[in-house]
């Protein structure tokens, strides 16, 4: 007796990938996620490849994983894929202390975040 299958949240022509515990603030990660929203996957991969943001390489890996999930798990056409959603969530925050003058201390926050990329297949209007 196993657990019953849960309903799939995504449509039949969609696939997703999630990367957790990225060592960057959600605000900075959202800037990179904005670059790829609504674009065709080949264009989004090119934009991430030549982006100067450090975290763009991790977002590129996540996008490539979503493309692989679409191709291998859901039999979708890679050439017709578009980035439907790319959204960012907060993760844990490490708290650190930096010594300051006169015996005081300053708090340093080291945030983590996660990104979810959803791709879907569009039908040609031809």
UniProtKB/TrEMBL annotation:
Highest taxon, organism lineage: Bacteria
A Pfam family: Ribosomal_L22
Keywords: Ribonucleoprotein, Ribosomal protein, RNA-binding, rRNA-binding
GO molecular function: rRNA binding; structural constituent of ribosome
NCBIfam families given in the database record: rplV_bact
Family per record: Belongs to the universal ribosomal protein uL22 family.
Name of the protein: Large ribosomal subunit protein uL22
Native source species: Methyloligella halotolerans
């Amino acid at each position: 007796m196993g657990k019953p299958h849960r309903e799939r949240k995504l449509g039949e022509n969609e696939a997703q990938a999630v990367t957790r515990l990225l060592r960057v603030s959600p605000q900075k990660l959202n800037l990179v996620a904005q670059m790829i929203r609504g674009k065709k996957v080949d264009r989004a991969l090119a934009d991430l490849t030549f982006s100067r943001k450090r975290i763009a390489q991790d977002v590129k890996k996540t996008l490539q994983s979503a493309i692989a999930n679409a191709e291998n798990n859901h039999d979708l056409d890679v050439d017709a894929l578009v980035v439907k959603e790319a959204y960012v969530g907060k993760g844990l925050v490490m708290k650190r202390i930096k010594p300051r003058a006169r015996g005081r201390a300053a708090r340093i926050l080291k945030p983590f975040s996660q990104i979810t990329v959803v791709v879907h297949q569009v039908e040609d209007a031809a």
